[in-house]
Amino acid sequence: MRGVCKRYGGVEALRDVDLSIAPGEVHALVGENGAGKSTLMKVLSGVERPDAGTMEFAGREWKPAGPVQARRAGVAMIHQELALAPHLSIAENIALGVEPRKFRGLGPLAPLDRRLMHSTASRVLARLGHGGLDPTRRTGDLPAATRQLVEIGRAIASRATVMIMDEPTSSLGRHDADRLLEVVKRLRDEGLSIVYISHFLEEIRRVADRFTVLRDGKTVATAAIASSTDQSLIELMTGRSVGAVFPKRKRRIGDVALRVDGLKGRPMPIRASLEVRSGEIVGLAGLVGAGRTEFLRCIAGLAPIAAGAITIDGHRLASNASIRARLRRGLGFLSEDRKGEGLALRMSIAENLLLSNFQTVATQGVLSAARMKAAANQWIERLAIRSADPGRAAGTLSGGNQQKIAIARLLHQDSTVLLLDEPTRGIDIGSKVQVYELLDGLARAGRAVIVSSGHLPELLGLCDRIAVMHRGVLGPARDVAECTEASLMSEAVLGSDGEVAA
Ligand SMILES: Nc1ncnc2c1ncn2[C@@H]1O[C@H](COP(=O)(O)OP(=O)(O)OP(=O)(O)O)[C@@H](O)[C@H]1O
Ligand SMILES: [Mg+2]
Fold first, then answer.
1. Is residue 335 domain-resident?
2. Residue ranges around ligand 1 (CB below 6 Å)
3. Exposed, middle or buried: residue 326 (CB in 10 Å: 0-12, 13-18, 19+)?
4. pLDDT for res 387
């Protein structure tokens, strides 16, 4: 790709970008949220047309008419948000767009060759190291990691030689992420070229051969991964030198702000008790599916409970208290599902930011456009949200910047107890540091914070105490000084029963 430019209205997403990918390499594409990574890959895979620039693929001019044609010609993109048809089977999804037919002369009217479809699917899955998967299963019923594998299988079935993965591990647990990285290496060894977008540097170090850094829509560096350090990568991405990633702990811990007593979920078998004090950040660790999200949703009033008491600042919540009532008591919740629950994508950035607490920008109940814009701009600056204009629709922001809007909106509520489910998912490293600082600032201001994360180094760096969820049962919250990555991992896999028995 040479001199590629792409503009969306007033936003120059790509300005004169160069990128070259060799056969049989994993090429990491890194950069801050909104740097242009996804846009560049949409151009390569035919989803978007560039405004300027040239592309060449396998020695020929590359001008894909659309994603389907690009896929047929060998360039396939695995999207940030997966794009499978949930009602179809694994085999049908893998064949999507390239369905084998009997009597080929009849064209698209010919009947599907289901036998061939299934054998292709089985072969592809075996190649990915998942031969045991039944290709007749409905994809809608599969866990995220398996659905992703089906997408990759789909790319392979269409004989892709360039595969683009946009943050493929962002919603996977560690075990599934490890397996995916193995798949990536296997495909590379078979000669595929893989463009790998990720905000996890440790992952990039494990799989990538070379990297390209995008900043503000421009290429700032391309080099062998072995020649870089984490520090040098972060500096290339942010354009400045960075200090400590995690804020100094030593916060003043106050009174109990949130007490969860003998909570029992229904129908999810959650069992949990926990106390969080003001000034404290408590981490929730656990494997994907262990029930961390469900636990937080029970407290937030989004999931039903069968028993147990939730007390905020000494006031016991009625078990059927509405979400609104909980909000008034000072409870704030950030959902991990930012598309579904976090944001109104068609509404403006400003509206999304201020939605939860319009009083702060209204005078005697009347909204002031100027104050709204000023307040929105403050958040945009504090969280370094890349956007030309707070009046634009939230849906036009890059993935990570949408997540930041959801966080800013929660912070704008000014709650006393904050529950954050995977707050830094999809966020670039520079912004993660900002989010850590904000959470630290909230704790210092006397708020009580619970952070759920699948990323253990993050919990170890940020929290005062960490509790591990194992098959719906919450273990004791331990002082972070007693925790290591290994101890948390083993508790996540085995539970804390040994401890309780002793
Ligand atoms: N459909 C669109 N309309 C308007 N602006 C857009 C659109 N798509 C992307 N942009 C803008 O283009 C810029 C680059 O976005 P892009 O999604 O490529 O970033 P990214 O590097 O993938 O970020 P992230 O790490 O957050 O996923 C951003 O400023 C974004 O707001
Ligand atoms: Mg992106």
1. no
2. 8, 11, 13, 31, 33-39, 386, 396-401, 428
3. buried
4. 67
